[in-house]
Amino acid sequence: MEPERKIEKWLRAYAKKRRAAAGEPSKMHPAMRRILQSEVARLGRPEEKPSLSLWQLVRQEWAWLAGFALVIFFTATLFLPALSSAKHKVQHVTAMTRLRLIDTGLQLAAENNNGKLPASLNDLTNELGKIPSDPRDGKPFVYVAGGATLDDLQTNSVLAYSPDDQGGRAVLFADGRIDMETPAEFSDKAKDLPTQLALRSREIQNAKTPEVTTMAKNESDLSEPMTTLPPNPEEPAPGESQLMASTTGVTTNTQGTHFFGGFGGVGGFGGIPHPAASPPRVPLAIAANQALPPQGQFYRNIAQQNASPPNSKADLLMQSIVVQPQAVVLVNFQLQQNGNALRVVDSDGSIYVGSILPTNTLAQNIPSQAENGEDTLKPSQSTDQSIGQSTAGTLSFRVTGLNRTSQQNVIFDGNLAAVSTANGINNTTFQPRQQTARQQQSLPPGYHVTGNATVGGTNQINIDAVPVPQ
Amino acid sequence: MDSEADLLARCRLGEADAWDELFDLHYAAAGRFVFQLSPDFTHEDAEEICQEAFLSVVKNINSFNGDSQFQTWLFRIAVNKARDYLEKRAAAKRGGGQTIVSLQAASPENGLTPDPPANLPAPDEFLMNNEQSSLVHESLSHLSEPCREIIALRYFGDLSYEELSTTLTLNPKTVSSRLSKCLDHLEEIAGKIFMREKQVFSRPTPGQ
Fold first, then answer.
1. Per DSSP, what are the bridge partners of residue A342?
2. B121-153 b/e with 16+ CB inside 10 Å = b?
3. DSSP per residue, B143-175
4. C-alpha–C-alpha distance, residues B53 and B37, integer Å
5. Looking at CA atoms only, how far is residue A52 from chain B in angstroms?
6. How distant, in Å, are the alpha carbons of A16, B51, B53, B88, B154 from that of B33?
7. I need a surface site. Which of A345, A403, B66, B86 has the fewest CB within 10 A?
8. Phi, psi for residue A363 in degrees, rounded to 5
């Protein structure tokens, strides 16, 4: 152990002296003890907040909660009506804008169809993109000017209006004006309209369904039920419900007049005789027979199905190897008619437009089919019979247009022949030779479409199309 | 009687009796220890420093992990509080926070000029300064804080090397070497002060 150093001795001596100077051990002064104990009490016991249940919290803070609820209530009271009002205004403006869109579409369609308006809003699909609806309830506008001629309409004639009265209706007039009519104003307008204004649009839609059904009943040997076209979703106007009830399932009105909405030629608003409406310009052969539905009739070309089967294994092999990326033209299509105008909508959306040809043109068309040497038709026989039937039930037409898929022009020369035995029209001329009895029976009533289509100027397609349900 | 750990556990729970017991156990030792830290400390100074030290103990009792003796931890707190106290008093002597009084201006109340006490030691203190205690204290005041702390704990608090090692969180050998170096430094300072004082007292007066 090292000897103690001199400085250590001095330190110990100093400490001893200071301890001696300190005297007897002192005790803590009571005042200091109180200060320290108060600090202990302040820091030593952390306060524990008792946990409160929700009910206790509500009881303690009810004043705050009630105040908060009042603030929310008054805020909602102040702002919700304003928001609702703004919403209604926007919906009204949107409804009027969409009616303006319909008006534009009607003008365009009328220009393309000698001033005649389309039979239904469905016919405006190409111009409008899709059928606009009332933004307030999502229902389509009620279109009541189907088939009317634009020039014959009065300026205050109603073309379309909002389906439901929601504190007012947006109404489109024939002069392009669009007004927001109150219920009283609209009632006055409705009185000024020809009687049963909105009923006509409903009857136009009803006309096609019972007509088809009637055909099915006439052909009692059909084993399959006929397809009934869906009713028009348009809503009736006020006061028309009673009249609608009286026409359920019947295609005649109180005067017993037949309505053929697809032809729209009965004039006025959707087929009701209208003082300002133009007389029908539909060929009598068709009018006397049966009508295409207003939205058109769907067809399927069965000529390809009836083509001769491959004769040899080599043919089958070639068919399986040679795959030509060829556009499908007029295999499934829709035929729409408005007066003399015809429109064929192909399955890819291509539209070919044209018209029904005069009778003298028909004779020129038939030999062209014969020259094609198609087996499906009987050219020599059909020529005589077709000409003979041109006044009885066969019509010729030509539609042209651009095929979207192939980007080639399509010229379709065809014939319309009624497919019905009930009205005495002989349709055997245009029956596909290889059609079975079953197929013949299952054909829906309508028009049998035959003819030739030229694609791109060179490719000839034989058309032998039968009506099919949509 | 409870052990120190049990007593401290009760203190942590906030029991007033435990705190009273703790105060009674350590207050006298703390006061005596603080009194040694400076020859200038009076009993009142020591009490004030002890109060600050115990307040710090109350606030920080949860940070004491029990690695060392409680008294060792208390002494170290007391050393820091004593240093703060001395610095505060030195700052006050330099004029901080006090009104400056002109020594030449006469008092408007009695017309007498102030006669404040001199900062120089009183005559009896002057005699004591000649002694070792004064020499030691002055030498300690020139030491760095770590050296002053370890010397105070070792020679005034009578802590062993192991207790110093635990309190200062140093290796025992480091404690030994640091203490040796600090003593060397203190000895050097004390030697210089002693030579200065010797020259002062051995210098002949102008009348001799």
1. A337, A354
2. eeeeeeeeeeebbbbbbbbbeebeeebbbbbbb
3. S-HHHHHHHIIIIIS---HHHHHHHTT--HHHH
4. 14
5. 25
6. 11, 13, 12, 20, 11
7. B66
8. -65, -30
Element housing A90 (H / E): helix A62-111
Contact (Cβ atoms closer than 8 angstroms) between residue A342 and residue A397: yes
B16:A29 CB<8 A:
no
Please state whether beta strands A459-468 and A158-161 pair in parallel, antiparallel, or not at all (unpaired): unpaired
> Is the CB of B27 less than 8 angstroms away from the CB of A28?
yes
Q: What are phi and psi of A415, to 5 degrees?
A: -130, 145
Q: Which of A10, A43, A44 sits opposite B132 (nearest CB)?
A: A10
Q: B14 and A29: CB-CB below 8 Å?
A: no
Tens-place pLDDT, residues A242-299: 333 333 333 333 333 333 333 333 333 333 333 333 333 333 334 334 445 555 778 8
Q: Which whole-number Å values give the CA distances from B112 to A343, B108, B115, in the listed order?
A: 129, 8, 9
ipTM of this complex: 0.72
Contact status of A428 with chain B (Cβ, < 8 Å): no
Does A40 sit within 8 Å of B19, measured CB to CB? yes
Contacts 24+ apart (CB under 8 A), A406-410: A406/A326, A406/A327, A406/A329, A406/A455, A406/A456, A408/A327, A408/A455, A408/A456, A408/A457, A408/A459, A409/A455, A409/A456, A409/A457, A410/A329, A410/A330, A410/A346, A410/A350, A410/A352, A410/A453, A410/A454, A410/A455
pTM: 0.35
B55/A35 touch (CB, cutoff 8 Å), yes or no: yes
Q: pLDDT for A330-379, tens place per residue?
A: 888 888 877 778 888 888 888 888 888 776 544 444 444 444 444 333 33
Positive or negative torsion for Cα B93, B97, B98, B100: positive
